[in-house]
Every structure is written in C-alpha cells, then in structure tokens.
Batch of 2 targets.
Target 1
Amino acid sequence: MPYTDAVIHEVQRFANILPTGLPRATTTNVLFRNYYIPKTQWETPDTFNPGHFLDSAGKFMKKKAFMPFSAGRRVCAGASLAKMELFLFFTSLLQKFTFQPPPGISHLDLDITPNFSFLNRPMPHKICALPRT
Ligand code: HEM
C-alpha cells in the first residue's frame, strides 16, 4: 500500500510532533567547505503532500531527510514498533470508518496549527467516524 505508507510518512513529516533541538535552517542554498546545505529538502515544505514520499511511478520512496525518530546513537528505541503500530492502526481505522468534521463544519475550518508545548500536539477537534458500508 504505497499511497497509505506515503500518507503516514507525510503526516509524521507535516505534524513534526517532536521537533527536537533548536530549529536551524539556511535562508538560501549554501555551499560551505564543500558541503552543500539546501534551503529545504522538500518540494512543498509547508503543504501536506504525500508526493514527498512517492516516485513518478507512484511507488513509496524513502527520504534521508525524514527523521521523526531522530538518528544515530540516540535514535528512538521503539521506532520499529511505532512504525508498525502507526501503519496497522491507521489502515484498520480507515478500512472501517470515514472520518469527517461534524455537520456544518468544513475541513477548511479546522485549525491545524500545532498546540506547541515541547511536543507539537494537535488542537482539540470534534470528529465524526462514519462506519464504511
Ligand atoms: C510515533 C511514535 C514515536 C516517535 C515519533 C518517537 C520519537 C523519538 C525520538 C525523536 C527520540 C529521540 C530523542 C532524542 O533526540 O534523544 C526517541 C527516543 C526514544 N524512544 Fe521514541 N518515539 C516514538 C515511539 C516510541 C515507542 C512506541 C517506544 C517504546 C516502545 C519508544 C521508545 C524510545 C526510547 C527508549 C528512546 C530513547 C532512546 C535512547 O536515547 O537511547 N518510542 N523517540
């Protein structure tokens, strides 16, 4: 399920729930001591876009810049478990339910600004889970 996998990765990239360390970025592409530091690693950094994780044939592709579990010696010890759980929970819920805002509220009205307090948490939202027929 490459598209589902891409959507989950894009949710993690976009939500950025544990933005560890101080945010650092260059304002332009920089060449420093022969290291190329791009301004951004993503085609549309501020827009939700599962295409970030799909190649031109629609196959899932890994990206080195995707590091929600950190990297190196302090990489998340539960990463494999968390990835498996995210995929299983997400697919089983979406197979059984359609999620949508309550009647009278458009998805465009939902405020997806993160509620930051060390972690980036979502704002509270009311949501309807409609069983799929
Ligand atoms: C989506 C779910 C999860 C995310 C995004 C996540 C993310 C992270 C990140 C970014 C770190 C590194 C913090 C640092 O820079 O020191 C970390 C560390 C850690 N995580 Fe997770 N984590 C998740 C789920 C889990 C689960 C399910 C477990 C255990 C069952 C777990 C256990 C740990 C442990 C033990 C560490 C410390 C590793 C060390 O410093 O040696 N995590 N996690």
Target 2
Amino acid sequence: MRKPVVLLLGGPNSGKTHYAGQLYGRLQRKPGMLKLNSNQTTPPNLSALGEVLGQLENGNSAEHTPSETWSEITLNLVDDQGQELQLNWPDYGGEQLKEVFKNREVPENWRNKLLNADGWFVLIRLSSETVYSDAIDKLKTGVGVAKSSSCQRAVNWDANAYWIETFQILKHVAGLDSISSLTTPRLAILLSCYDELTTTDQPPLEVLKAKLPLFESYLSSTWHESAISIWGLSSLGKSLGSSTNDDDFIDEGPEYHGWVCTPDGKSNDGDLTKPLAWLLKNYDD
Ligand SMILES: Nc1nc2c(ncn2[C@@H]2O[C@H](COP(=O)(O)OP(=O)(O)OP(=O)(O)O)[C@@H](O)[C@H]2O)c(=O)[nH]1
Ligand SMILES: [Mg+2]
C-alpha cells in the first residue's frame, strides 16, 4: 500500500487542528475525493480528532494545541482512482514552526519528515499575517524613519521575509537547494480562514500575490509550476468561539460546514479532501 509522507506547515492559530477535525468528520460522514478505506480497519488512535469533532458538533471551537505537542494519526484512505493510501496526518503546536525560524534550528522529527516528504501542505492565515506595505515608501521619503539615534525595530518580521526565510531553512534541510534539485515535492498552499477575507472570484493565487507579493514571487521562481497549487480553505465556514453553541453546527452537523476555494477561484466547494487529494495525486512509492 502507498504510504505518502506529508509535511504539514502552519504557525500558531493557522487552523491546523480544525482542518484535521473537519477532515476526519468528512471522511466518516460525507466523503469526497478521498474516502476511508473500508478494506482496512480504522486505526485506534483517533481520539484526539474525535474530541475536536465533538466540540464542533456542539457548535464550539476546539482548543489551541500546546506548543510542545506532536501527534500523528493514521488514516487508511482510498482515492478516486481506487488507490489505497496510508496517511499519517500530523498535528502540533504551531509555535514549533516559529521556533524553527527564530532559532535557525530544525528538530530531529521535522528533519526526518523533511527528508522524506512527498508533499508539503502549508496553512497561511492571511488575516493575521503582518506586512509593512509602506516600508519602501518610508525609506524613499524619510517619513516615519527615526531621526534620533534610538532606532526602533519592529517586533514582528514582515510575513514575506518570514515565509521566504522559513522556506529557505526547510528546503536546505530537505536537500532541496535550488541548483542541485531537479524536482520539488508537491506544494499545496492553503490560505486558511478564507471566510475572513473579502475576495471576489479571484483565484487564491491572486489573493496571495496581493498580500504577500514577495513570497509569491519567491515561490513561483523556485518551485516547479506543475508542483504547486494555491487554495482558499475555510474549514468552518465561519468563526466559532469556545462557547458559541452555534445552532447551524448543532442542527446540521459540522460536516455540512466548511469549504475550499479551488485554484480557479470559482467555487466554494464542500469537499475539504480536495487539496489533499491533489497533493497525493500521482504519488508513487
Ligand atoms: N473564521 C474562521 N475561523 C477558523 C477557521 N478554522 C479555524 N478557525 C479558528 O482559528 C483559530 C485557530 O484554529 P486552530 O485549528 O486551533 O489552529 P492551529 O493551527 O491548530 O493552532 P495551534 O494549535 O496554536 O498551532 C481557532 O480559534 C478556530 O476557531 C475557519 O475556517 N474560519
Ligand atoms: Mg492546533
């Protein structure tokens, strides 16, 4: 059976846990391109995802994942071509990714994933990314540049620089330096909590380009075009709090909420497995 390795990347609060919970609910109750494999028994270690789904069934959001947590659940899947896949889906506290950037150090369990990854699944919540869009203007005009010797530094990095640098560190550890690597793993960029953004029918690529132009241009110049795909992801379809008790979720079930915006930008599609199915397509062991 195929056992693809997926590298999940997403900072704190980017939506990793809610996507995993909703994915699990979809697989069980409203399957799409990926389905649970009925020829295989359901693995026993699914309680963490069951808890997330339980919270959503009560119309509430799930907890933040403690920063040191690293867990993996095994999903026995079958794709729309009938191919059987055994996927280990990880979840972890998103601070770990920030630590990689801050310390320029990649922990051992990440290193193994990076070296073996068949696909990278990256969650970026644009609404909470910091960008200094007026930085260049300020440099040109001198407006806002400190005149005294006490030069103030911004607390957060610009998200363009943050993501490029993070990718460079990870690519280096994965042995994907631009000259030596002829192929790159498939890369799915998921613009998470997409319902928070005001978008028209633009493709998600354009939405990424508008907010993080430098990062988008880095991606398009360093990743093979056919190996990259950019999606909008709204796992919940709306925002939920820890005690919202949302009636729609309670009455209809979480599996009727949440959607993806496909790379063509035209549809709000309820099949949350689609970006994952794209990532795992043509995978050969
Ligand atoms: N509006 C909206 N909010 C969402 C959506 N998905 C998740 N959220 C909210 O975003 C917050 C973070 O989601 P999580 O799934 O916990 O994020 P995470 O990446 O697991 O975060 P860490 O555990 O800190 O690494 C929670 O408050 C969720 O309720 C969505 O599709 N839309
Ligand atoms: Mg989490």
